[in-house]
Write a structure and sequence with these properties.
The protein is α+β, with helices and mostly antiparallel strands and 193 residues long. The chain is built from 3 helices and 9 strands; from the N terminus they run βββββααββββα.
């Protein structure tokens, strides 16, 4: 929590070990993950405005090649289609009038030194009074690799209220992602990973 700054509080405890689910998109499309493999879900944090939520999960692979294969699988069109369909179905189960859809499939930071190895963004929303789709949230999904370790950072945010607030929101999101990545990388390096 201190890595994110005083503006953040813990929202949900660490999820502990992740168990396999054959329906989960992470186990398909060229991923080396097996149902018997386990990952770890860290705690979830929210900022003081209660509009940005941040959380992470981690996997340690048997080899660096397997870790690279996993991050590569998250960039495939089949994986993205599967993941967005699952997220949309879960959202519609909670409220049939809402949606989740793919907004962005990559980022200029993908592959850059210190950057993620995969990235995509989803947008969520519901119907406006006139029947058109209204976006009210965005979900940013990045996978970083540190040798054999892959950690996924997820940041969920309410959409900017107007065009004038877009730059400030973008800066807050960048600061959050950078703080999380720096903290995780620091811990992995200290552990000799």
């Amino acid at each position: 929590m201190e890595d994110l700054g005083a503006d953040w509080t813990q929202y949900r405890k660490a999820g502990g070990f992740l168990t396999g689910d054959a329906k989960n998109c992470s186990y398909r499309f060229g991923s080396p993950l097996k149902i018997s493999d386990r990952g770890y879900a860290g705690p979830m944090f929210r900022d003081a405005t209660k509009t940005i939520f941040a959380y992470s999960s981690a996997f340690v692979f048997r080899s660096e090649a397997a870790a690279k294969a996993y991050t590569a699988s998250r960039t495939s069109a089949a994986y993205l289609k599967c993941q967005v369909a699952q997220d949309d179905a879960a959202q519609k189960k909670a409220d049939p009038k809402t949606f989740v859809r793919l907004a962005v499939t990559t980022s200029p930071e993908v592959g850059a030194p210190g950057g993620p190895e995969s990235f995509y963004e989803e947008e969520a929303g519901g119907k406006n009074a006139d029947g058109t789709d209204g976006v009210n949230a965005a979900y940013y999904r990045s996978a970083y690799r540190h040798g054999r370790v892959v950690y996924v950072i997820k940041i969920d945010t309410a959409a900017a209220k107007d065009e004038a607030s877009v730059p400030a929101l973008g800066e807050r999101l960048t600061t959050t992602a950078t703080a999380m990545t720096t903290a995780i990388e620091g811990r992995l390096t200290a552990l000799g990973a």
